[in-house]
C-alpha cells in the first residue's frame, strides 16, 4: 500500500522549522481537523514551533483511494517531516492520532523525542468494535453520527456552558468524507499496540479524560504501566475531547512533560 497523503500547516516558516529544536507535531481525532487544537494553541505555540496535520481524508488532507494502517500514517508523518527538513520532534495526538503517537514512538524512536497520547488507548476493540459505526456511515453518512456524539465527547457541564464549541466539532464530523471516515475506522479496528508497548523507548505521556467513555483512564493506564517510565495525567471532569474542554490543563501537562 502507498503511504497516505496528509495535509500539514505551520505558522513557522520552512527555514525556521528546519533549524528549530522545539518542533511539536499535533494530530487530530477521528472526524475532526487541525482546528481541534485551536484552544490549546496559544499556550503551546508560546513554547513550540507547531506543525499540525489532518488525518487522511480529514480536513484538507487528500481523500485516500486505498485502505491504510495507522502505522502508515506514522510513515506519512515522517515523510512530511522529511519534506520540511525536520530531523527530530515531539509528537502529540488525540484519539486516533493518539494511537499514531504509539506507532510513531515504536517505529521511529530515532526521530521522536517525546510522544503524547491524548484520550486514546492501545487497543480500540478490533474490527467487530467498528462494524456498526462503519455500517451507519455507509448507509447514512457522517452527519448521521452527530446526534450521539456530544454525550460521548463532552461532559454535560461543557455541553451546557459552550454549545458553540460543541457545534464546531460536530460540524467537522458532518463535513468529513464518508469513505475516509470509514477507512479510518477500519484502521482503528486493525490497530493493536499491546504487543509492543514494553518495547517503546521514547518517553510517553498519556493524558486521559476522567469521564471519557471511549478511552477511559483505565485504558490509558495500560500504556502508562507497560511502557518503561511512561506517565499518565488524568484531567478532572473532562471527557473524550479534553483538548477542547480543558485546553489549558492539557497544554500544561504537555509542556511540563516535554520540558524534561
Number of domains: 1
Shape designation? globular
CATH architectural group: 3-Layer(aba) Sandwich
What's the order of the H and E elements? EHEHEHEHEHHHHHEHEHH
Rg for CA atoms: 17 Å
CATH superfamily: Alpha/Beta hydrolase fold, catalytic domain
> What fraction of the residues are assigned to beta strands by DSSP?
5-15%
Helix coverage percent: 40-55%
Q: Supply the CATH class.
A: Alpha Beta
| Largest beta-sheet details | 7 strands, mixed
Give the uncertain stretches in residue-range form: none
Distance between the termini: 37 Å
Can you describe this structure in just a few lines?
The protein is an alpha/beta fold.
Describe this structure in words.
It is built from 12 helices and 7 strands. The chain has 260 residues and is of the alpha/beta class. It has a single domain (8-258), classed as Rossmann fold (3-Layer(aba) Sandwich), CATH 3.40.50.1820. A 7-stranded mixed beta sheet has the order 1-3-2-4-5-6-7, sandwiched between helices. Helix 3 packs across helix 4 (96-107) and helix 5 runs antiparallel to helix 9. The longest helix is centred in the N-terminal third of the chain and has 15 residues, at 70-84. The model has no long low-confidence stretch (mean pLDDT 97).
